[in-house]
Amino acid sequence: MLVALDVDRESADGYTTPGQYVEVTAPGASGFFVLAGEPTAGSAAHTWELLVRNAGDAADLLVTRPLGSTVEVTHPIGTGLPGPLAEEAPVIVAVVGSALGLARPVMRLRVGAGHASSTELFIGLRAAVDLPLRDEVSAWADAGVRIVLCLSRAELEHHLDVVPRAERAAGYVQHAVARLGRSPIRIIAAGPDAMLAELRALSGADVVTNRG
User: Fold this and answer.
1) What are 123-138's pLDDT values in tens digits?
2) 15-67 residue pLDDT tens
3) CA separation for the pair 148, 102 (Å, rounded)
4) Other CB atoms closer than 10 Å to residue 43's CB: what's the count?
5) Dihedral angle computed from the Cα positions of residues 171, 174, 176 and 177, in that order, rounded to the nearest 10 degrees
6) At the topology level of CATH, where does 91-209 sit?
7) For the chain, what are the domain ranges?
8) Are 122 and 176 in contact (CB under 8 A)?
9) pTM of the model
10) Confidence of residue 116 (pLDDT cuts 50, 70, 90)
11) Of 13, 94, 133, 185, whose CB has the highest number of CB atoms within 10 Å?
12) For residue 46, with 0-12 CB atoms within 10 Å meaning exposed, 13-18 middle and 19 or more buried, which class applies?
């Protein structure tokens, strides 16, 4: 679920680069969440979006609290993803589940800059039906981004209405990227440690990571 937080101007100006994250605290729970919208520094916007799954503690509170509830949130943490994100050079973005929140502002930047055709997005899921933000992912595919749904349940023929233009691959994200048969120039990745380690081991890959 996408959760929106209205923040003050000073906090909004602290979100400068995709990959930054915040800590959200509510009574009895706290958790870290990557900022899933476009940077708000210098813009009129003062709303942050978080892609949240029901995973206990603060995540559960965020998705069940009534509209208008108050939570404590830190200023953006970290410097975000390094290097230019909207340049023409080819980029692979590899994420698992709700880490799609990290990919979201990167996709928007690259599509907006006219570099959709040099962008590949690999998304790890148990099954296609688990994909969040389906309409947005479909829009990226329509714009020219190569979308690959990496399904650990290997149900490649199920739910073909989920992003019809997407490719399907059985297994984990890192294995689908390795099967490309070429050395990626740059990979932006968020997911489990084992996935990140295998992506770093790919020959010639410059892997920028956010654990997610």
Assistant:
1) 999 999 999 999 999 9
2) 999 999 999 987 778 899 999 999 999 999 899 999 998 766 788 888 888 89
3) 16
4) 11
5) 170
6) Rossmann fold (3.40.50)
7) 2-73, 91-209
8) yes
9) 0.91
10) very high
11) 94
12) middle
